[in-house]
Amino acid sequence: MKEIRNRGYELQFPTIEPQGDSALLVRFGNQIDPGLNHQVHSLFREMNKKPKDGFIESIPGYCTLVVSYDPLKTDYEDIEDWVKASISKSKHLSPCNPKTIEVPVLYGGEHGPDLEDIAKLHALSVEDAVRLHAHETYTVYFIGFLPGFPYMGPLNCRLDTPRLETPRLDIKAGSVGIAGMQTGIYPLDSPGGWRIIGWTPLNLFDPKSEPPARFSPGDKVKFIPLRDGKILP
């Protein structure tokens, strides 16, 4: 891939490939990386500034963007040319001002059944594990898995913990989990393999709201530890 530089990131000119007869995939790389994800968000913003006729939507991932279109209104070559032009323009976009969302969290105990094991695994006290998790300001990489589920990172490397070997069958909506170098929040009751460290009373997904999801790709998230309804120091 051709290397370019922008705003302090090592950027890669992406590859573009068809996905069936009504979508294409823009790939900036093959790993979870804040710089690559930044490029995805920049392209997402550029393409949605002045949508092309026949364009339906674009869906961000860690380092990819899926672009879907109506084949009755346009064709692959036309969309590909528009995407390439948008990539060039996105390199010159001014930095956006993402909204920062504070998420109150009850850590540990019945709300975070995996917190003690994670602390022991990394030779930390429970209090230090909570501080490490709550200290970071996370970027929402993308929304997926469940409606409104935010994949966020990067997690402090001292908390890097693999998923559970056997997923739970029932995780409560609002549960805050970690997996590898990511953290996330379950918006709905669901099975899942992330290690649960806390719970938030925030409603993350309401199909009657507009938009229905509380988080959007590129948002910043700060966790606020609670105890007995009070913010911990």
Model description:
With 233 residues, the chain is α+β, with helices and mostly antiparallel strands. The protein has 2 domains: 3-90, Gyrase A, domain 2, CATH 3.30.1360; 100-231, Beta Barrel (Cyclophilin). 21% of the residues lie in helices and 34% in strands. It has 4 helices and 16 strands. It has helices at residues 34-49, 76-90, 115-121, 126-135, and strands at residues 3-6, 9-12, 15-18, 23-27, 55-60, 64-69, 100-107, 137-143, 150-153, 168-171, 175-179, 182-185, 190-192, 195-199, 220-227, 230-231. Strands 7, 8, 9, 11, 12, 14, 15 and 16 form an 8-stranded mixed beta sheet that branches. A 4-stranded antiparallel beta sheet has the order 3-4-6-5, with helices on one face. A two-stranded antiparallel sheet has the order 1-2. A hairpin with a 4-residue loop joins strand 3 (15-18) and strand 4 (23-27). The chain is elongated. The termini are far apart. The model is unreliable at 1-11 (pLDDT under 50).
* Helix/strand/pairing category: alpha+beta
Distance N to C terminus: 47 Å
Quick check: average pLDDT? 88
Number of strands: 16
CATH fold type of the largest domain: Cyclophilin
Helix and strand pattern: EEEEHEEHEHHEEEEEEEEE
Radius of gyration: 19 Å
CATH class wording of the largest domain: Mainly Beta
